Amino acid sequence: MTSGDFATLRTPAGPVPADAPHWNRQRHSAMPSHRYSSAHDRVALPLTGRRWPEARLERAPLWVPVDLRDGNQSLAEPMDTVRKRRMFDLLVAMGFKEIEVAYPSASRTDFDFVRHLATSGAVPDDVTVSVFTPAKRDLIDRTFEAIEGLPHTLVHLYTPTAPTWRDVVLHRSRAEVLDLIHDAATHMDRLAAARPGADIRFEFSPEVFILTEPDFVLEICNSVTELWDASPDRPVVHNLPATVEIATPNVYADQIEYAHRNLDRRDSVILSVHPHNDRGTGVACAELAVLAGAQRVEGCLFGNGERTGNVDLVTLALNLHAQGVDPMIDFSDIDTVRDTVSECIKLPVHPRHPYGGDLVYTAFSGTHQDAISKGLAHHAEQATQLGVDEGQAPWAVPYLPIDPKDVGRTYEAVIRVNSQSGKGGIAHLLHAHHGLDLPQAMRADFSAVVQQATDAAGTEFSPQQLFEQFRTTYLEPGIRGRTVLTSLTTEEVAVDKHRVTCELAVDGGEPAEYEGLGNGPLSAFTSVLAQAGIQVDIRGYTEHATATGPDSPAVAYVQCRVGDALWWGAGQDTSVLTASVKAVLAAVNRAH
Ligand code: KIV
Ligand code: ZN
């Protein structure tokens, strides 16, 4: 059925497929899906006996951020030297050791930035700077001009090799493309040889590797390995990009494993991958590619990059962290990383972005909050038992894949309250922010109050708003209600015998003096209330200090039967006794 605002949506338009099971009533849509062919029909997959499904991710690959080249090429407003430098410094500070910094022959800005790096001392000695070049002699010359003086460089040559690119873009046969690559690779070799002592290594990318015939990929890469005379001491990088992602990650993994098992001089080749995220599976492609033999991953922080982006290095690295594998990159202040990236690329990071988004360590749902609240308390106990810092204790808190503190977040935003929330989360916030530890039985009572308020407001409640709700519901009636206490003294007249003397204004009347006896001060006070015509039976009572130290305020919670119903009240005072009396009065005034 289409209607109103959705009149433009024509699906589902067709019949239910004849062979559909009775429980699936989906209809054929009007989408022209027949225009596209399966990845399996577009490229051969010669791999047999795949091994990657049995492999495990046990160490971090070499991460190579390409934010300053591929990421930068995708920006409406490419980075200038100042923004590039800031991004570069961030990448260095995080611990990246190989950084693709520019496409120097493509723009003056990129060329100038490489010169800036070469002359400003910005590059630590253990960091290799990579630069990108097409296979054209004059552009390679310009690239080498840019890197003059940099101590460790990687010159990254790329050439389109996939059939459509050969036919439509380059108008060259396979043999001609191979010649073009050989000519460029030879030229690079010559230029590097002319700078003895400079540490210049090479990288090659067959563009749209995933659509290039596997035998052609091997022919090109193996001949380039040979031409550059790669050795374990001076290995070549073969970077196999999923330039435009077209298949499920298992297909990429098969393609990578095939290359891994068939590339020549394997110990002299660093097998690199460069996934993009067109299908939204860039991270999965990279992870399976590493299982399949990739040793190096190119990507961008938070997945910036052309179209749907390059693979996201933050997610990849922290996925390892979450599996107990050191990512070898520092994410201990993820918000600084995120904000710096956002400033440099002038794009926001989505609030639900894995690991870095504003909302990713937050639970609104009641059941999740309850579990998290219990999980955090359990975590603290476990740490104490093990005698280790909480930040070092094994992590097993429900719904939080990693400890937010690992990435510099606090627990403050972990639980946030709206109409979806439950008693556990509300109690957690009152405890964390206001030191109130509501008795279990009171939590449901207060949660119903909050539920009504948040439903009516339709918005989130901050910890302060929650406390306000608590105050007006349970504390305030003990101070300003129909029955008001204006003075109170107590004394223990004998063992287990207490006297309360007080002045009480009942039901808006004039204050009057009362005196009551009981086996405790509270029971003496209920006898005062009885004299004033208010029958109260105290059914539950707890109190605690809200801070440490002798003058810290106490809070008391009581549940009273007043008439036919049970009522909760609370009182806060530096005297426990006054807090308790206020709590009883609050329950009374709530009932009347
Ligand atoms: O996506 C890509 O193919 C690239 C290069 C590695 C050619 O950015
Ligand atoms: Zn790319």
Identify the notable features of this structure and list them briefly.
binds 3-methyl-2-oxobutanoic acid; TIM Barrel; alpha/beta; elongated; 3-stranded antiparallel β-sheet; 8-stranded parallel β-sheet; Double Stranded RNA Binding Domain; 14 strands; single chain; 592 residues; 18 helices; binds zinc ion; 3 domains; Helix Hairpins
What does this structure look like?
The chain is an alpha/beta fold and about 600 residues long. It has 3 domains: about 55-345, TIM Barrel, CATH 3.20.20.70; about 365-465, Helix Hairpins; about 480-590, Double Stranded RNA Binding Domain (2-Layer Sandwich). The protein has 18 helices and 14 strands. The chain has helices at about 40, 65-75, 80-95, 110-120, 135-145, 165-170, 175-195, 215-225, 250-260, 280-290, 315-320, 335-345, 365-385, 425-435, 440-455, 465-475, 520-530, 575-590, and strands spanning about 60-65, 100, 130-135, 150-160, 200-205, 235-240, 270-275, 295-300, 485-495, 495-505, 510-520, 535-545, 555-560, 565-575. The longest helix has 21 residues, at about 365-385. The structure holds 3-methyl-2-oxobutanoic acid and zinc ion. Zinc ion (ZN) binds near residues 70, 243, 274, 276 and 310.
